[in-house]
Specification:
single chain, alpha/beta, 8-stranded parallel β-barrel, two-stranded antiparallel sheet, 11 helices, 14 strands
């Protein structure tokens, strides 16, 4: 199997097995979080990917990150995203929208009414968060009340409806990287005593309720889930990740969703890799992500660890990454200073390969 070979995700035929990973670039409008014209240009430039997964997009005004981060919880934002999906489709591409909620990794300085961020339990993330006053330690969040959880699930359902209105081909539920759904999954951050805490099945309940809600909007063939079992940098670790993600994979398989997107770099020791086991349990499309280059991606497919490989940083600096990988051409180096700022510079002005 080649990364340049056509493939299938759900009921979508894709031109190749190269996925553009979700990459927050903070280039939407600072106040409204509506995608600006440059966002449509950015994604359409990268439409050579078999599938684009959009930057993580807030489902609620109570989940607010750095200025310029994107959202999909009101009509104005839907209209802005329509221009993005239209541009990608006009360029021959396919695009899913990644939906997420920050949970404890928000800061009250950016939330309405300076409200505390919410989480499964009142346990702060380790590290610092950017605030209007500069970097500060993550605050101790407020534990969600049991009665508040249905409204949270509804926020994801409504966000999926908005994604559908905006013209996305599907949605990816962001259950990775220490954000709210991930916080519920892991026993390092979830110490609840109700039916959303304790056992693996209870801790996975929120994710699965959200998946079910989103399936009700798009159907299972247009829904994916992203997970990151090895992510621990903010103190979110789990005591038995193999048991947790085995259960998650089994439950997602039972729902017949389009794909499972696993962040598992090649640097993870083979004995700790979960891809072989999870791919046995989940028989939909399997996407692997994590610091892949051309050679590692080819090897991962050849070893049967994945059906598709997602590239992140390489897509930032190489809008024509698929063609560069195909030709084994030199890659543009990324300018890290413009990852989250710079307007058009470092966003839509990276050079393409010369024609011919």
């Amino acid at each position: 199997m080649s990364i340049f070979q056509s493939g299938q995700i759900g009921n979508l035929a894709l031109a190749n097995r190269i996925v553009m990973a979700p990459l927050g670039r903070a280039r939407s409008d600072v106040q409204s979080r509506v995608p600006l014209p440059r966002v449509a240009t950015y994604y359409s430039q990268r439409a050579g990917a078999g599938l684009i997964v959009s930057e993580a997009t807030h489902v609620s005004p109570n989940s607010v990150s750095r200025p310029g981060g994107s959202a999909i919880h009101n009509a104005e934002q839907v209209e802005g995203w329509k221009a993005v999906t239209a541009a990608v489709h006009a360029a021959g591409g396919r695009i899913f929208q990644q939906l997420f909620h920050l949970g404890r990794k928000a800061h009250q300085g950016r939330l309405p009414g300076n409200a505390l961020p919410v989480a499964p339990s009142a346990i702060a993330a380790q590290g610092e968060v950017e605030t209007p006053q500069g970097p500060q330690p993550f605050p101790v969040p407020r534990a969600l009340e049991r009665a508040e959880i249905p409204a949270l699930v509804e926020e994801f359902r409504q966000a999926a409806r908005n994604s559908l209105l905006a013209g996305f081909d599907g949605v990816e539920i962001h259950a990775a990287n220490g954000y709210l759904i991930d916080q519920f999954l892991r026993d390092g951050s979830n110490r609840r005593q109700d039916d959303y805490g304790g056992s693996v099945a209870n801790r996975a309940r929120l994710l699965l309720e959200i998946v079910d809600a989103v399936i009700g909007v798009f159907g299972p063939g247009r829904v994916g889930v992203r997970i990151s079992p090895h992510f621990e940098v903010d103190g979110i670790g789990d005591s038995d990740p193999a048991a947790l993600y085995t259960h998650v994979a089994e439950q997602l398989q039972a729902r017949g969703i389009a794909y499972l997107h696993l962040i598992e770099p090649d640097s993870v020791e083979p004995a700790r890799r979960l891809a072989p086991r999870l791919r046995q349990l989940f028989r939909g499309a399997f996407i692997l992500a994590g610091e892949f280059d051309r050679a590692r991606a080819i090897r991962a497919l050849a070893e049967g660890r994945a059906d598709f490989v997602a590239f992140g940083r390489l897509f930032i600096a190489n809008p024509d990454l698929v063609e560069r990988l195909r030709r084994e051409a030199p890659l543009n180096p990324p300018d890290e200073a413009t990852f989250y700022s710079g307007e058009e510079h470092g966003y839509i002005d990276y050079p393409f390969l010369a024609v011919g």
